[in-house]
Amino acid sequence: MLDRVFGPRRARQFHRLLHNGKITLLCLVLTIVVLRGNLGAGKFGTPEQDFKEIRETFYQYRGKRAEPRRVLEEIQTTTEQTTSSSSTNNYAEFDINKLFVDEEDDVKKNPNEPYSIGPKISDWDEQRGEWLKQNPNFPNFVNPNKPRVLLVTGSSPKPCENPVGDHYLLKSIKNKIDYCRIHGIEIFYNMALLDAEMAGFWAKLPLIRKLLLSHPEVEFLWWMDSDAMFTDMAFELPWERYKDRNLVMHGWNEMVYDEKNWIGLNTGSFLLRNCQWSLDLIDVWAPMGPKGKIREEAGKVLTRELKDRPVFEADDQSAMVWILASQKERWADKVYLENHYYLHGYWGILVDRYEEMIASYHPGFGDHRWPLVTHFVGCKPCGKFGDYPVERCLKQMDRAFNFGDNQILQMYGFTHKSLASRRVKRTRNDSSNPLEVKDELGLLHPAYKAVKVPSS
Amino acid sequence: MLDRVFGPRRARQFHRLLHNGKITLLCLVLTIVVLRGNLGAGKFGTPEQDFKEIRETFYQYRGKRAEPRRVLEEIQTTTEQTTSSSSTNNYAEFDINKLFVDEEDDVKKNPNEPYSIGPKISDWDEQRGEWLKQNPNFPNFVNPNKPRVLLVTGSSPKPCENPVGDHYLLKSIKNKIDYCRIHGIEIFYNMALLDAEMAGFWAKLPLIRKLLLSHPEVEFLWWMDSDAMFTDMAFELPWERYKDRNLVMHGWNEMVYDEKNWIGLNTGSFLLRNCQWSLDLIDVWAPMGPKGKIREEAGKVLTRELKDRPVFEADDQSAMVWILASQKERWADKVYLENHYYLHGYWGILVDRYEEMIASYHPGFGDHRWPLVTHFVGCKPCGKFGDYPVERCLKQMDRAFNFGDNQILQMYGFTHKSLASRRVKRTRNDSSNPLEVKDELGLLHPAYKAVKVPSS
């Protein structure tokens, strides 16, 4: 028929053209299909969304730093738009943040109104002494040389910014539960931000003050960061040494009082006595904390006044160094800077020596031979970025946990297959006379945990 | 030149052909480029990998159940091949599983050799009684009517299969720490698989037996699942009621002994006395646990013998119902099936009534008016899939946590802004006489926590 219209030759050419055109068309269609795939087939996103997804797709597959959490959320968002996630049973398809849309930060109230951590209290020792006399069933000493201690730690009410963070917080509190059970110490795990102005490293201050005033039966409050783990389950603190002190931190007198070095002490693990002196210290400590202008300005002062301090907003540790160095006569005689054992131990100098410690020593020393605490300063496992390589941080946190956990497991005849392994193996066969089996470390029923029995 | 070879017409045709060919070629190249994108540009994966990635890509963007964790790992694997993740400080770029390559499951040893949970012990009451006489400093009763209790719970040594799972495990143990601190109960959080054969819901048995035999000072062991939370912080268990019982579970006599209903009791929260009777029960309970053939076959028996039980491998709860129903005379007189309060409370019937409870009652009842425990049966927050919509599970777990947490916060003058909010607000101003402020629930210094002071 074409022949009749154009004549045979033109017809043949047209056919050829048509034939090539088919291939062209096929290719175009294929191209579009695949492209649509990347642009989120099945939904019609806004151009911005589409662009964002193309970008992500590129990042993912070009190996550039794609940020899983975000990719994750986008996948989930995509999913929510296609399937009704409110009815899915698949955790992968649900974005937890959907549950907390209302959770933006509080706005600071009146910026002119000065910050107060609470009403001034000047007679706490009298108030507390009276209460203790009235409540003999809640003694502040469990036995003549062992004070009642409350270990306080905590983490954000939100999930971590990276998925494994919460798993390490879980391991970290399990580790603390173990040490505290063995040593008869109570735990308070905080997940609430009591004072929006004191967010970050300053959040511990309002919490600590509140707990001291609410628990007169507590003699010492032991603050411990969530990224610090007990690595010596057998070490009992030398309470006798602190009988005349109100604040015990790991540190060195020269570095703090002479050098004013911002790392002359560490506030990741410290003891604070429940007394008026401590309330007064908190009153002097807290004013640098309120976030925004105050904290930033204070940071400049601290960087100027202290040795080697980088430029950043005021932190509780630098503030403490500055207070002790600048008001030595007021505080120093009640402060004990401990370095005979690791009340806080920097992980960098400890974690690679665990095997050596196992070969040469045993738990109970608390010092370089077997550190009481291994503190993962700078790893920020609950954040997006740390100051150290993530692989080293996570690997070493597991090693520290297992190193401490082996001391718990040995009580029951088990041990980790290696410091790098989550799995455990038996170290002895079960006995039909289990009570005759002695745990080498004597952690099952340690003397320092024994209770006084009424002389009846 | 073509003209000279073919003559002008053929040449023109050839040009046309070439021209169309160009378009075709362009399309093909474009297609391949985009396809290569999906196949992981920049790296040359094996065909299997490529296929896997195409599949994932399809799932992701077609809104089918894409599994973030896996997508995540693939993105990270991709990343690792291009950038050196061992030196990254970005948690998003690191795959935690890289740290545990050696961690595959143990292979069952000799399948012919019968399973044993440990050497037979027949004189535990004598052994334990002797030990208690020798160790008066570790009494099994903290006061005449309050036994020493060890709450046992735990979770897998691995991170959860979904990223938010670990965050809820963390909230769940914080919740237990709070109840146990107030009620003077010790906690053992297990993260070790002591017996590879008893993985899953059976893992608690070897653990419980080990703890009973290692801690003769413990009178009652309280098992609690990781997905159960305390929602009444003021309720103290009626210990007097159990003085002649060895096992206390939430349940109903008729449903267990008459109906043989597999949900006639719940093993997510139960009390077990430290005595020979309990060891004997465990010896009868455990044999259905070993994974593989035994557990599967036992599952068939249980589904056949019990009312309404779905078809699946043997679980510890069904096994307990079956033991009690089939050997009533042997065990029943020492078992207390509790339903006067929620030792275990199914979340489905409780979580939507929290507001009503707040309006009409107060903590301390432990029953329908204010449940002691809210147990998220079937939500499997640490798994990939739950039996219920994820959004409802997560939302209600947060409500349950906050409902319980409000009772802790009120001691310190705070409360959650709502049961749906992670944020808190003040309920009263701080006082300069903090000890005069009474916490309505009297949880700061409850009578049941008071210690006996030596009559000196």
Structural summary, described in words:
The structure is a homodimer of 456-residue chains. Chain A has 14 helices and 12 strands. The longest helix of chain A is centred in the first third of the chain and has 31 residues, at 8-38. Chain A has 456 residues and is α/β, with parallel strands linked by helices. The first copy, chain A, is globular and about 110 Å long. In chain A, strands 4-3-5-8-7-9 form a 6-stranded mixed beta sheet, with helices on both faces. In chain A, strands 1-2 form a two-stranded antiparallel ribbon. In chain A, β3 (149-154), α6 (165-182) and β4 form a beta-alpha-beta unit. The termini of chain A are far apart. In chain A, α6 (165-182) packs parallel to α14. Chains A and B meet through α2, α3, α4, α5 and α6 of A and α2, α3, α4, α5 and α6 of B.
Give the largest interface: A-B, 146 and 143 residues
Secondary-structure element order of chain A, N to C: HHHHHEEEHEHEEEHEHHHHEHEHEE
The number of strands of chain A is 12
**Which structural category fits the helices and strands of chain A?**
alpha/beta
Oligomer: homodimer
Mean pLDDT across all residues of chain A, rounded?
84
Count of helix runs of chain A = 14
Helical content class of chain A: 25-40%
Q: Strand order of the main beta sheet of chain A, please?
A: 4-3-5-8-7-9
Q: What would you call the shape of chain A?
A: globular
Strand-residue fraction of chain A? 5-15%
Query: Major sheet of chain A, described briefly?
Result: 6 strands, mixed
Distance between the termini of chain A: 121 Å
Keywords (chains A, B): Glycoprotein, Glycosyltransferase, Golgi apparatus, Membrane, Signal-anchor, Transferase, Transmembrane, Transmembrane helix
Main location (chains A, B): Golgi
Family (chains A, B): Belongs to the glycosyltransferase 34 family.
Organism (chains A, B): Deinandra increscens subsp. villosa
